Inverse folding.
């Protein structure tokens, strides 16, 4: 830019001394070219100074989400307590530990812990809870979720699915005719009648899949 400015100044000096029209025309064209080139360079330099960062900031890495599968639980008369072990969770900002409660479920999301997001969803809780009175606490390497029971009663397990699995493993009670399959159907019917809409959809899906496998086996025979 400094050299361009010197060239432009010299062309202006020659233009002042020139007396021939043809010479003046040539100098005027050269003057305009130099002025345009100088203006473009000044504009480019100004743009770089505006957009150039004062310091190099490394791009933030987008954390991926991992599912939490391991947890422990306990209960008192009023609360079901869920214990989730996450190393260093006490070091993340409080707003990074988020829990959403519904009448029969909860969702936990811990953001940006050791470069990862950690998520846990539990649906079909065994019994109803009070979302507005449920909460979470962050302790050293642990998140404690407090589910406020709607009614003070002992929970056999945490979810309806666990209860169904447990009852499937137990020998079904026999009916008056001594038919084990009828006893099993009675157990399933009881769970279906007592379950919520999601549990009923789960049982219906399982029944349809069982019938499809049975029909396929008969066709193969």
């Amino acid at each position: 830019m400094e050299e361009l400015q010197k060239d432009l100044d010299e062309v202006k000096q020659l233009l002042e001394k020139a007396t021939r029209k043809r010479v003046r025309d040539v100098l005027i064209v050269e003057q305009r070219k130099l002025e345009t080139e100088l203006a473009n360079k000044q504009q480019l330099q100004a743009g770089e100074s505006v957009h150039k960062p004062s310091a190099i900031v490394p791009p933030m890495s987008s954390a991926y989400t991992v599912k939490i599968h391991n947890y422990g639980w306990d209960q008192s008369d009023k609360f079901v307590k869920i214990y989730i072990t996450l190393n260093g969770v006490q070091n993340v900002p409080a707003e990074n530990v988020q829990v959403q409660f519904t009448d029969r479920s909860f969702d936990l999301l811990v953001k940006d812990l050791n470069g990862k997001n950690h998520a846990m969803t539990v649906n079909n809780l065994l019994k109803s809870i009070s979302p507005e009175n449920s909460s979470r606490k962050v302790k050293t390497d642990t998140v404690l979720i407090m589910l406020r029971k709607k009614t003070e009663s002992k929970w056999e397990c945490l979810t309806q699915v666990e209860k169904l699995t447990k009852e499937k493993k137990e020998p079904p009670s026999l009916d008056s005719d001594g038919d084990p399959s009828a006893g099993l159907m009675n157990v399933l019917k009881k769970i279906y009648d007592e379950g919520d809409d999601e549990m009923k959809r789960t049982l219906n899906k399982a029944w349809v899949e069982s019938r499809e496998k049975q029909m396929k086996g008969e066709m193969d025979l």
Q: What stands out?
A: The beta strands are 64-67, 72-75, 79-85, 97-102, 105-113, 116-122, 135-139, 142-148. The chain is about 45% helix and 20% strand. The chain has three domains: 2-51, 64-148, 160-220. The domain at 64-148 is CATH 2.60.40.790 (Immunoglobulin-like).
